[in-house]
Amino acid sequence: MADYLAAIDQGTTSTRFIVFDRAGRMVSVAQKEHKQIYPKPGWVEHDPEEIWQRTQEVIAEAMQAKRLSARDLAAVGITNQRETTVVWERKTGKPLCNAIVWQDTRTSEYVAEIAKVGGQDQFRRKTGLPLATYFSGLKIRWILENVPGARAMAEAGDALFGNVDTYLIWKLTGGPSGGLHVTDVTNSSRTQLMNLETLAWSTEVTKVFEIPTAMLPKICSSSEIYGLAKLDALAGVPIAGDLGDQQAALVGQTCFRPGEAKNTYGTGCFLLLSTGKVAVQSNSGLVTTLAYRLGNAAAIYALEGSVAVTGALVQWLRDNLNIIGQSTDIEALARTVDDNGGVYFVPAFSGLFAPYWKATARGAIVGLTRYANKAHVARAVLEATAFQTREVVEAMEQDSGIELEVLRADGGMVDNDLLMQFQADILDKPVVRPAIKETTALGAAYAAGLAVGFYQNTDELCTNWKVDRTWRPKMSPGQREMMYRYWKKAVTRTFDWVEQ
Q1: Which residues pair with 10 in a beta bridge?
Q2: What is the pLDDT of residues 79-130, one digit of tens each?
Q3: φ, ψ for residue 205 (rounded to 5)?
Q4: Cis ω on the peptide bond leading into residue 355 (within 30° of 0)?
Q5: Residue 342 burial by CB count (10 A; 0-12/13-18/19+): exposed, middle or buried?
Q6: What are phi and psi of 394, to 5 degrees?
Q7: What confidence tens digit (pLDDT) does each residue in 265-324 have?
Q8: Cα torsion through 168, 170, 175, 176, rounded to 10
């Protein structure tokens, strides 16, 4: 029997291929970034062909680094940036245009137009989601209406839609030569086109959005054998796990019991709380989403709080202002001052997601005086992530009736000790980092492993989860609430900056 599992982790800024052993430890990893394309203000794109090229490169590098062959892998799982929308030609595999990234706001006019008729929440009970630029459905409509010939191709079944998971599975299993056009329940739940109860495409929503169902992939579970890879480095290996990145992290953190939650600190910040077999509707600005479905078992749901800009704000400080040379430099810079100097940074670059859902908000730095310097701004950048997380935690506790005892944290920013301590301080709750930090890729590998019998059940996965470090709150209650009050004040300054 093969000794390892692997995962393709296709994120917003880079693609990784990671090989894991049975205990969930990394055996080999390769990672490559891809271009971020900004054609207009508010527009964010990726080149799907570049993503496919990077995927092939990291697979080859990670396999060669440890001299592994396809025979060493029991299965491969895929996890991906969600909502990012790809439409491509069935016969050639050529994308009709660049992928429209989840952060993109070009569909705001569609949101306003449809909301006028039935309100922002008209599809929430069916799909779990408010009308927003965030989700895939209206991105598809934009492509159909703005790319010449796209609608005719889609109606004829010659154009295929997929989030990045679907595009990669299609490529890996043969592309134009018999590639499988499938997705899983977690990714389909992020399109705003899937009915949460039936786990099928909603003809009501596709009709309103004017999207031909012929272009939509088959919805599968998150853990089953979809097909065998035909790519040379993985030839014959089952592709057997598929989860959107945040749901993959939930599985990687082994949050299988209702009430367990994790927060992933990546390009954005995403807090998911498992609600079990019940799809809990939010009254506090969260979304209802699929957590996972393992094979033929019942679907498991989650409440999610999505924050658009967290790690991306650190990159912005690096790339747009050149205040730091690399992302990891921000902690040292922020530590050169004792506090934020009264500076608060609300990164509403793509509007505000949970719990506000205000597409017309834009970013703001407030509280500036002549005293403020770049270190105060750096500290405000880190604190923005923690403040936004507290807002989501409060909304989640209100919706679920469950008070979080501890926050499980993962993602690229959890190595920043200053941020993690401030997160514990502003939440007034312990924050825990797991021993295995690559929980997103691990969750996809776990799903694939369950599908092929590499693991027998989720109890086996839970034994792998161990704590690396815990941060406990140290801030005084008075300081905590004063800072949070100023944060809330800063947020209101960003509202309705863009005039519809």
Answers
A1: 15, 80
A2: 999 999 999 999 999 999 999 999 898 998 999 899 988 888 889 989 999 8
A3: -70, -40
A4: yes
A5: middle
A6: -60, -40
A7: 988 888 999 989 989 888 888 889 999 999 999 999 999 988 888 888 999 999 999 999
A8: -140
